[in-house]
Design goal:
Layout (H helix, E strand, L loop, with lengths): L1 H35 L13 E4 L11 H15 L6 E4 L10 H11 L5 E4 L4 H12 L6 E6 L4 H10 L3 E6 L7 H21 L5 H4 L1
Parallel strand pairs: 1-2, 1-4, 2-3, 4-5
Helix pairs in contact: 1-6, 2-3, 5-6
Length: 208
């Protein structure tokens, strides 16, 4: 009898934990969507130490259409005097392939931007940690991140964990299906939830 009573309470606690986790993810997903709709236009961004073009590991030579838009947004920010340097990020998806950081740098230089620094790392937390090291503890810790709108909330949290004060200027993401957008939102929500538990340094594999 005692065993069945304990089992019943354990099952109830398990159901409660699962319910709480689902509610938390739903609330976090709502925060992801709200944050994606509150990103800034280039003219609204404050001056910063650097403009950071967030990339990934693509393995492609030419830049994808969304990365070209990110580079163009970075050019607009640079020409508006928001920062004196641009940092490009993103690694190679395979050995010997060009890094996205290098491809983005070439794109920026084609617009006449010469103050460019490459960070050819694959995961965003490592990228922003490196950026924080470049700025240094005594520098202006404000940065402008150019990225996908749905990454806004996660990027702000990752940057904060690295001691950076970040504003996200988002570019329109490639149009996808409704379910693809839902999957991205849930990925971002999961990355934020895990970041609270295991630290944002360990969420690059899911948030990027």
């Amino acid at each position: 009898m005692f065993f069945f009573t304990v089992f019943r309470w354990f099952r109830r606690l398990l159901y409660l934990a699962v319910f709480a986790a689902v509610v938390y993810l739903v609330v976090t997903s709502a925060q992801v969507v709200v944050a994606s709709r509150s990103t800034l236009a280039p003219a609204q961004a404050d001056k910063a130490s650097a403009i950071v073009v967030i990339g990934s590991a693509t393995g492609r030579g030419p830049l994808s259409s969304d990365m070209k838009l990110r580079c163009e947004e970075a050019v607009a920010l640079y020409r508006a005097g928001r920062a004196r340097t641009v940092i490009t990020t993103g690694a190679s998806a395979s050995q010997g392939a060009p890094s996205e950081a290098a491809a983005s740098e070439r794109c920026l230089r084609s617009f006449g931007i010469t103050h460019v620094t490459r960070v050819p790392l694959s995961e965003v937390p490592a990228q922003l940690g490196f950026v924080a090291g470049l700025i240094g503890p005594a520098g202006n810790r404000h940065v402008i991140l150019v990225a996908d709108p749905l990454q806004t909330k996660w990027l702000e949290d990752v940057a904060s964990s690295e001691g950076l004060n970040a504003q996200v200027v988002a570019v329109p993401a490639p149009r996808g299906s409704f379910w693809a957008d839902v999957a991205t939102i849930w990925d971002q929500a999961a990355a934020i939830a895990l970041g609270h538990v295991i630290g944002y340094k360990n969420t690059g594999w899911i948030g990027a």
